[in-house]
Write a structure and sequence with these properties.
Elements: H1 3-6, H2 12-15, H3 24-43, H4 49-60, H5 63-77, H6 83-87, H7 93-123, E1 126-130, E2 135-136, E3 144-149, H8 160-171, H9 182-192, E4 208-209, H10 211-221, H11 225-228, E5 229-234, E6 237-239, H12 241-244, E7 245-250, E8 253-258, H13 263-266, E9 288-289, E10 293-294, E11 316-323, H14 329-332, E12 338-343, E13 356-358, E14 362-375, H15 384-387, H16 405-421, E15 436-437, H17 442-463, E16 482-493, H18 505-513, E17 517-526, E18 530-531, E19 534-538, H19 542-557, H20 561-571, H21 573-596
Helix pairs in contact: 3-21, 4-5, 7-19, 9-10, 16-17, 20-21
Length: 597
């Protein structure tokens, strides 16, 4: 019997030589896979061979193999079109290059079109269109009507032409010419502030002066109210002109305004100064504001006033006059008559910017067509520069209670003039501590206005966007709810003398009273009973932007919101789960190997 047959059989694992230390990790992994393979096959018996291999690599492979397997797993399960063909292991290189090209082209086209939508949403979010229905005229206030006569002085009180030539000749040392008295100098300095700028070549007086002195002097020399405003009608009912017209200070001097809010409502507490308060207004505009209009409980005669329909009978009628002897071609030029400005009741009249001229011996009909722009509530969360307007509570002015583009520009001009000249014009908003420009500062504040216009133009041009106004230092955007009164004017010759019946004693008295006077007649009314309102609204809202982007992603890549959630899931939840499973498996491997060892 041989030696081999008499020796007991020794198991192979007892005589096996252990691998070198450098191969310890491979030996442990192989032992674990051999131990865990039957159980793993039972858990994935329903999976394909590729899926089993992928899950093995995630659990037992190296870090690089696990990462590669996770990417393959995402490609197999993702709902984004075309990605699965990149993750298939047995696809030829030509097919992979084809699908890579298709995916790159789809992504490029989708991104380009999405950027176009983003540009429209970001730069053109607002569209101005007509409102769904027309608006009746009784829903808006009748315009504030500010009237300024071109005749600034009464010759029997102060002759501006003679005083101008006397001052110029005296400063030129012309013999026999005496200087003006202090009283005349004060009147000349006040009147020169409302005369044409070319007359400012003759300087007289100080750089600053009390504003109340200027206003009192202009009031003293101006034509009497009763000699200028002869007859008035409102809604076809005769009224005293002094009951509906109130004194206001403008850059054109002392004017009178109908249907304007009182200074106590227009100005804030800081801007209410004695220079601007000429009356005590008992009524407040409780039933109206710019954004909401009239309240539902407002009656037929609210404040500010409104009309009940179109036509001359429902509007304002004025019969005005002026004495020929008081006409002064030196101060205002060879044009006589009146300036009329139509504006919203909450605005301060700026007569020099836009006005209608009413000449003497003419009857003028002014038919109004309102132009209103409102803004939808959907734009309130947009920045003002994107929607290009301010809501009332978004922009607070220092001197005004009511925000409007006109009030904002006037306040900005006052601040700029104060910075440049050290004073402001007598008609500009200010507080009691601000100095008012005197006669010697006339050129300065006129130049300041021109410089501000140039600065605003330059800054707006530099900062302007594609369809947006550039931001400037004043940055006076329109109000989100604004009212403008566009007018159509017709006129004809008016000979008031033919109206007077000279056969009666009253007619003869009227003719004698009006001797040497020229007359004008004005009717102001709404042209139509309804008008179309414009409305700012969202052109591309958030919903529209998401819908357009989702449509492009779905068209070119088959991407939906769930596809994005799926990608986030694979990068977070699924990745963390796989890492935990891998860590747990490695711990079991080490425990089993250590136990066997």
């Amino acid at each position: 019997m041989s030696t081999e047959s008499t020796q007991p059989h020794t198991p192979s694992h007892e005589v096996a030589v252990r691998p070198p230390p450098s191969a310890a990790n491979q030996w442990k992994r192989a032992a674990l896979m051999a131990r865990m393979a039957p159980a793993f096959r039972e858990t994935v018996s329903d999976d394909s061979e590729d899926e089993v291999d992928t899950k093995k690599q995630i659990k037992y492979g190296s870090g690089f193999q696990a990462a590669k397997a996770i990417i393959h797993e995402y490609c197999d399960y993702t709902t984004i079109h075309g990605i699965r063909y990149l993750g298939e292991k047995k696809r030829p290189l030509l097919e992979r290059l084809f699908w890579i090209s298709v995916l790159v082209l789809s992504v490029f086209t989708c991104v380009k079109l999405t950027l176009n939508i983003w540009d429209k949403w970001n730069n053109n979010p607002v569209i101005v269109s007509f409102a769904e229905k027309s608006t009746p005229v009784w829903q808006i206030p009748f315009p504030a009507v500010t009237v300024c006569p071109e005749t600034k002085t009464r010759r029997d009180v102060f002759n501006f032409t003679d005083s101008y030539h006397q001052v110029r000749d005296f400063q030129s040392n012309v013999s026999g010419i005496v200087d003006l008295t202090n009283k005349q100098k004060g009147l000349y300095g006040a009147v020169s502030q409302v005369c044409e700028p070319h007359l400012h070549d003759v300087t007289l007086g100080n750089k600053t002066r009390r504003g109340m002195e200027i206003i009192d002097a202009l009031t003293e020399v101006s034509p009497h109210f009763d000699d200028t405003y002869l007859n008035c009608k409102w809604r076809n009912s005769p009224v005293k002109c002094s009951d509906i017209f109130h004194k206001f200070v403008t850059e054109d001097g002392v004017c009178y305004s109908f249907n304007s809010l009182s200074p106590a409502e227009i100005f804030r507490a800081e801007g209410i100064i004695p220079d601007f308060i000429f009356r005590e207004e008992n009524r407040l505009s409780m039933d109206w504001n710019v954004e909401d209009g009239y309240s539902a409980g407002a009656d037929t005669s609210p404040y500010p006033n409104r009309v009940l329909g179109p036509g001359a009978r429902a509007g304002l009628y004025l019969f005005m006059g002026g004495a020929e002897i008081d006409f002064d071609d030196m101060c205002r030029g060879p044009v006589q008559g009146f300036k009329i400005l139509l504006h919203t009741p909450g605005d301060v009249a700026q007569v020099s910017k836009q006005y209608f001229r009413i000449p003497f011996d003419q009857e003028v009909l002014i038919s109004i067509r309102p132009k209103i722009i409102t803004t939808s509530d959907g734009l309130k969360h947009y920045e003002p520069n994107r929607r290009q307007c301010y809501f009332q509570k978004e922009r607070e002015l220092r001197y005004f209670n009511i925000y409007s583009q006109s009030n904002c520009e006037l306040e900005c001009l006052a601040n700029f003039t104060l910075t440049k000249c050290g004073c402001v014009k007598f008609s500009m908003p200010r507080n009691v501590n601000m100095p008012v420009c005197g006669d010697a500062s006339l050129k300065c504040y006129n130049q300041a206005e021109d410089e501000l216009l140039l600065r605003e133009f330059t800054q707006g041009l530099v900062n302007a966007g594609e369809n947006t106004r550039g931001e400037t230092e004043c940055n006076c955007l329109p109000s989100c709810t604004s009212i403008a009164y566009e007018a159509e004017i017709s006129q004809a010759d008016f000979d008031y003398k033919t109206v007077i019946n000279t056969d009666t004693p009253e007619g003869k008295e009227e003719q004698e009273k009006r001797q040497g006077m020229k007359m004008s007649r004005v009717s102001i009314f709404f042209k139509e009973a309804q008008f179309l309102t414009s409305r700012r609204s969202e052109l591309y809202g958030t919903t529209d932007f998401l819908a357009n982007c989702g449509g492009l992603l779905g068209l070119f890549m088959g991407v939906s919101m769930l596809s994005i959630v799926e990608l986030i899931y694979f990068c977070t939840v699924r990745l963390i789960s796989n890492l935990r499973m891998r860590r747990k498996t490695r711990k079991e491997l080490l425990k089993a190997v250590n136990k066997d060892a």
